[in-house]
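Thread: sanity check for a docking pose with manganese (II) ion

Original post by kr_44:
Hi all, I'm comparing my docking run against an independent structure prediction. Below are the sequence and the ligand SMILES. Could someone generate the full complex and paste the structure tokens? I mainly care about where the ligand ends up relative to the chain.
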Amino acid sequence: MTRLSIEETVQFLNNNDGYLILTHTRPDGDTIGCAAALCVALRQIGKTAFLFPNPEITPQYEVYTAGLTADGNFIADTIVAVDTASEGMLAKGAEKYAKDIALCIDHHPSNTEYADRLLLDASCGACGEIIYEILLQLSGALTGDLAERVYVAVSTDTGCFSYTNTTANSLRVASECAKEGFDLAAVNKKLFRTKTRARVAVETKLYSSMKFLAGGKAAVCVLTLADIDNAGATEDDLENITALPAAISGVTAAVTLREMSDGQGVKGSVRSYGDFDSNVFAQKFGGGGHKGAAGFTIKSDISALRSEIEDALETEFRQ
Ligand SMILES: [Mn+2]
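Reply from moderator J.T.:
Ran it for you. Here is the predicted complex with manganese (II) ion included:
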């Protein structure tokens, strides 16, 4: 494994051809935006480049890969992975390329160095910030279609510039992209100000199940299988839903219980701020995680578990 600088990466991309670009499983805006932008830029300089067809891509991102995905007949000479920390994170079906990845471009500090060459900058909130520098050197300037894809990468991975990974550089790259004349308002509306009706239905269920404890410092919510089915919600519709109770003013610890399908028990997600340690709390129920976010899975009746959790939270805040 060789570490590359941005300049060395650009040189490598100029010197090779026949690119297949891999994304990660459960693809987000960062991996798709980076892969698609790199693919378009390589084509602009006369290279053959395709994206691996990630089977889990969601409709909101499909527009960015249209006309770029490889069919079964494409034989790659140079395989590149973007925003993918380990072999195990590769898109479903891309595992077969794991040993042949010539270059990985990433921002995860946990990158396992699985590729022959690695360009890693863990100071970047989004991999899109690294891709931006590469494209500038590769193409000289960013066209609107490149800028839009880089903007999608950076804005989604930083939670529309609100997560703690957002830096001055994230904002600078987004600002440079926004100068290139894509429809910024339309992209922001689509990515950050639009919900499916199923999502709204399931949020309604979540909020109506909510109970505040410890004088409003804690909240517990439940989602049953019936709630999820009746809302017609898919996994996409449920994404990050556990962040909602913890976003309520005054709440410093929130637990969301979700009934899983047959025999898989109940999944608990703990989110907290300040002194409350989600990891310690989750460990009481056989799980774990980080101080601000942790989880557990228990084979238990959801309403019995709910009272247990409520008691545990009240006890925690009484101490
Ligand atoms: Mn990322």
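DSSP finds 13 helices and twelve strands in the chain. Hope that helps with the comparison, let us know if your pose agrees.
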